[in-house]
Amino acid sequence: MTVLGVDIGTSSSKGVLVGEDGSVLATAVRPHTVDRPGPGHVEMDPRVWWDEFATISRELLATPGAGAPVTAVGVSGMGPCVALTDGSDTPLRPAILYGVDTRATEQIARLEGELGRDRVLRRCGSLLSTQAVGPKIAWLAEHEPGTVARARRLHMPASYLVGRLTGAYVLDHHSASQAVPLYDSEALDWYEPWVRHIAPWLELPRLLWPGETAGRVTAEAAGATGLPIGVPVVAGTIDAWSEALSVGAQNTGDLMLMYGSTMFLINTVADRLLVPQLWSTVGALPGTRSLAGGMATSGVVTDWLRELFGAPDHAALLAGAEASGPGARGLLMLPYFAGERTPVADPYARGVIAGLTVEHTRGDLYRAALEATAFGVRHNVEAMRAAGADIRRVVAVGGGTRGGLWTRIVSAVTGLEQEVRTVTLGAAYGAAFLAAGAVGEPRIDVWNPVRERVVPDGAQRSRYDELYALYLRLYPATRDIAHALASYQRAPGSGGSARSDRGV
What we know:
- The chain is of the alpha+beta class.
- The protein is 37% helix and 22% strand.
- The protein has 17 helices and 26 strands.
- The strands form nine sheets. Strands 19-20-18-17-23-24-25 form a seven-stranded mixed sheet. The chain has a five-stranded mixed sheet with strand order 3-2-1-6-16.
- α12 crosses α13 and α13 packs across α14 (405-414).
């Protein structure tokens, strides 16, 4: 058995061929950019998702020693996104991306008034926010009525790929549970009154669980991808939940930390926990529930700093940050460089670097960015625990786990021990695991055993407790100024529009 997993991420698409025992046979990556056509607008053309899937598939299948023919395909992708197509799945415009796209603030306020804030929370598990699908559809209805007049279907990256591969129009339950307020997370079905209120034209996709078979590769798709005709394709899901599956973070009490372009946290919970500052969703596996949080930036900030520094080697930056030491020689950063999602829920928050002097080095700045993410993780973890979450085990995944410094800082700041698995490829590997379940009975602990455990350094805890207290004070102290500056950035002619950038 050989399975193919492909993930469409914010800054790249990644693919992996995996053998029956979980061994990685081949990998492929296609970097890409997102478009920022206006302040707060973050988009991507869905046709790029398919083109990259096809080229990744062909590259992997042509790899020497790639193994037996592919027997199943899994997909995942960033989300929740709003990709509108006509009835034949032809994209009508670029997809509006997840919570980093903050255009629909007016529509959030209007829909809250029409539907009721508390009613949305009770029915959907999450409030309307920049992460929600409904307000973005409402924004399109107001600003691009011609597009909406032709729209019939709603896709996210995984469902769009499934449609191109099989012809099936489906969406997985987890992704649907993030399509607030269109899905009833208690009834596990679409909530038609609110669908009709926001998108009366929408042909609702059939709902499946991420590991269920959505269809089989068509002759047309086989010609484009090199895959065998008739191979089963599972429904797939949003990337962070696929990442959690890739490292076995799927049992009650598990918390996944995803170190990527953004930082994502998923705690598997026994029952629905409704808290305004976080997202309560359906899990990736039948019968599971999640309490999730997401920071708008993490790796995006470190990549931005690296570009400002002239793109030095990553190892050199990490060495400088290591030498800087806890507290970054008196620097403190708010990592809100693209607004912030949870638990702040403020699209107009902005990044702050406090304590700068001419004595500070790039290593200090880089260390401050790593620590800022760690403080954000602690803020989310404390919000989860306050909501009743039981966090018993933490598993780290993603590119940020390489090198070890970032995970050590997070453990020191939060006091949490972290597991790091042998394979940290992330969502593409999780998609492959879901695909393997369609043709076998894989066990993730066999596929991907624990490689190391990151234990908190108790000697650093008191320093980080002091800095965290300052971190919590820094946002309210600077919020009004940040909002005023954000209004300048959104103003016409501010220079904050019409560009394309790597990552979000």
